[in-house]
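Re: the multi-chain job from yesterday

Posting the exact lines I submitted so nobody has to dig through the queue logs.
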Amino acid sequence: MANSPVATATSSGWKDTSRKALGSNLLPIIAALIIVSVVLSFMTPAFLTASNVTNIVTQSAVVGIAAIGATFVIITSGIDLSVGSNIALSGMIGAIVAQSTGNGFFGIATVILVAAVVGAFNGASVAWLRLAPFIVTLASMGMARGLTLQVSQGQSVYGLPEALNWLGASAIFDVKTSALVTVLLFVVAHFVLSQTTFGHRIYAVGGNAEAARLAGINVRGVIFAAYVIAGIMAGIAALILLGRLDSATPNAASGTELQVIAAVVIGGTSLFGGKGSMIGTFVGVLLIGVINNGLTLLNVSSFWVQFVQGALIFLAVLLDSVNTRRRAGQSRS
Amino acid sequence: MTSSNKARLSLEGVSKTFGTNEVLKDVGFTLEGGTVTGLVGENGAGKSTLIRTLAGAIEPTTGQILLDDQPLPRTAKAVIDAGISVIYQELTDIPDMSLLENVLLGNLDARAGVKRQAENRRRARAGLERVGLGRVDLGTPIRELTMAQRQLAEIARCLIRNARVLVLDEPTSSLPEADVETLLQVVTDLRAEGMAILYVTHHLDELFRISDTLVVLRDGEKVAEGPTSQFDENSLVRAMLAKDLEQAYPYRERSIGDVVLQVDDLTAAGSKGNSVTARAGEVVGLVGLAGAGRTELMRALAGCHSVSSGFIAVDGRAVKPGSLAAARESGILYAPEDRKRDGLVLGGSIESNLIYGDYRQVSRWGILSFRGMARKALDIAQRYQVRMHSTSQPVGDLSGGNQQKVVVARISEREPRVALFDDPTRGVDVGAKAGIYERIFDLAERGSAVMVCSSDTDEVLAVSDRIYVLVSGSIVAEIPREQFEREHILHLSAGGNKSNGTFS
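And the result, structure tokens for all chains:
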């Protein structure tokens, strides 16, 4: 119901974005992050130390970077279940190439290339073959993991060239490079999503693909690009994992997709598409990181950590659904 | 229905406030069994809120609603059980289910959880007979029925639930003209059976035909009420808009220039070998019954779906048929018929919806200027008189007419060479209609070729310089404005010339 006269109000861009970013979906999760952090810092003095805080970001790097890609994909109303397998496959092939050529840079290029190809496969299947994202990425999840096991014959590859390990192993002034890169990538991704025409198109495609198409947006291209970005992000995450372990293992990052999707959804991105933010995902990643870290410091079994993550997804989806319904109720007047 | 269980539904001083926005102000009237009450008002006058209040979906802030002197129950389900059924503008059936399952939705008779087939079929049949669908096979998937049949099936569903008060919200907005008659007949029959009916529509002619009483809302207030016989079209429009409507559809004489759009022998799904032209400054109308291929022709022209054969040229340059991108590149823009499904990203802001598909004016190197977007959107919204709070508001929050203005504005402001408006005033009130056509005429005056179609033939005739008449996917006649003759055109579009085989 719009009973006001023709509006004279205007909105400034940054205010608009920050309001969107700090919309109703985000406040509860920021509050949750603060509450959990405060509680943990009382329960264990080790929690609120500078080294532990950077530790949390470092530990969250793999999930965080993958979640950047997943945010793009989920806003287009897609999903990427293949991210964990993609990390393993691209890491494994990159490690093998690096070892056999002795050149770490070849390895890096291979990791990114393979990951992008998996993303392109997903994107092309969704955009042009019009297959359901859930099924496509479930299939590529299986295929990528199978390929990983085949090329490695189930064996880990140890002792990688230094260049290949750099992203995951090096540090700049006591802070892990991986943590810095994660934060940097979030800043860039936030800019792309909120301030560029590409980001604007991502929201339009997720909000109503047919309306976006008829309005002249290249819907297929946008969807394809989102999955390729998700693939490349998986590749960067793979580099971090390689460097951290100085090895490639065939079952690396298995189950990561769940943590990634959890972080994105907890961060307020709607699984229905068209709604979400990179800031939200960042907070979601931190919340999962803080809970993992806190429960570890408290010597809680890692089985409980999984349980808590599952419960968080449930709460986030519930919140999303309630919000969507409430808004639908309001706007139908 | 005996006279003893005729319902009496009265609203007393009903107000509803959302936040600071007073949507209904002290509205009161009474629905009596055996009468049809017409409810009219502009988009945004509060009709939808009033309907949702009656349905038990929202509670009035103050005031009360009495059904047979008892306060209305507080949940939607209890309201239905009490005998009030609302039929919404959009169909609420489940396309893949059968007619039987749909009309008994939420109301299947079962014993110990097992469906009682025979009893269910008997009840469904009884309800369907009252709306004239007694002969349709109960097992038919409802998606295979016509829009009119589906609309009637929704009414049957309410009858099976023993509705005594029926609220119909724009029941004819998606129906072809021929089927409107059927629906009005059913409404008249139900009135004779003693049903209390609230009939909400933008089609004033329907109200004059079937309603006993009229209630007019404006800005949430009841501004007029009385027997239908006390109103005529002018006084009703004056009550709705608080101003005289000189002409419902303004027509302006324009200078018509060279041929802009040239289409030869275009064949696509639902369009058979059609050739059309449109000139600069010209408004070309497409006339035809629902299913005659108006939308299909427009969509084929716009490249929305693939085209099997044909030639399209804009300003003498050939355009690859069946390509949305090629059509847009050459300046053909299409405003879809169903704004909610195809036209708008409802969760997106007004400024976003005005900008989709063309970022040139509001971005540099791929980076958006939100300030530029807001400025541009505000300018457009003012010129098109979009009623809103701010340009960053989700477009889904606007009323239907204002949403439609956004769709029309997005197309018009791109200065297309050819603009295709598919039913640009669907579900829009009479005041907003005139405004939308004014903007469309402005566009034509700036030298675009414009094509429009509408489910309302009179409307197309009123605004067009020339029309094409379509029958089952083919153009059967081309008529210039000087030769517009309503009866002849309706005859043609009903396939009148087919029998003797001459296509004029």
